Amino acid sequence: RFEKRIYIPLPEDHARAAMFKLHLGSTPNLLTESDYRELGKKTDGYSGADISIIVRDALMQPVRKVQSATHFKKVKGPSVSNPNIMVDLFTPCSPGDPAAIEMTWMEVPGDKLLEPQVSMADMLRSLSSTKPTVNEQDLEKLKKFTEDFGQEG
After folding, report:
1. CATH number at residue 93
2. Which residues form the Spastin/Vps4 C-terminal domain (predicted)?
3. S-S: 23 plus which of 2, 4, 55, 140, CB 3.0-4.6 Å?
4. Domain annotation covers residue 151
5. What count of Cα atoms within 13 Å lies in the side-chain half-sphere of residue 141?
6. What are the start-end ranges of the E strands in 35-92?
7. Largest Cα–Cα distance in the chain?
8. Are the CB atoms for 99 and 71 separated by under 8 Å?
9. pLDDT tens-place string over residues 45-64
């Protein structure tokens, strides 16, 4: 019995854009529809697994911002215990911010920390450090194999 080999190409830009949205899920973020489209276009040659890695890294960017921050500022935000009540929270800021208070994340009470949301800048930073795992030569070999022995999916 012969196995059938089917070539399934890498996702197209609209599918990659949908993957970014899917992997972010319900995580609060600042991305717009046009950001997703731009990410889809910028990731030509990336596989679904590559996009998953980019998103996972981008999800860690706000945590890194909090951990490396030397200054925080007070902002109003929903209480952790009751989201209907607005309370003073602390979020990372630059030392030059007029409202900046010099402190580390360890000095911020746990229920008073407002983590920054994932932004397009976080995505682009993660994208710049993540290269596609499939290269052009691999794709050419797969296309040739498909032409000779297989079929397209």
Report:
1. 1.10.8.60
2. 91-150
3. 55
4. no
5. 5
6. 71-78, 86-92
7. 73
8. no
9. 999 999 999 999 999 999 99
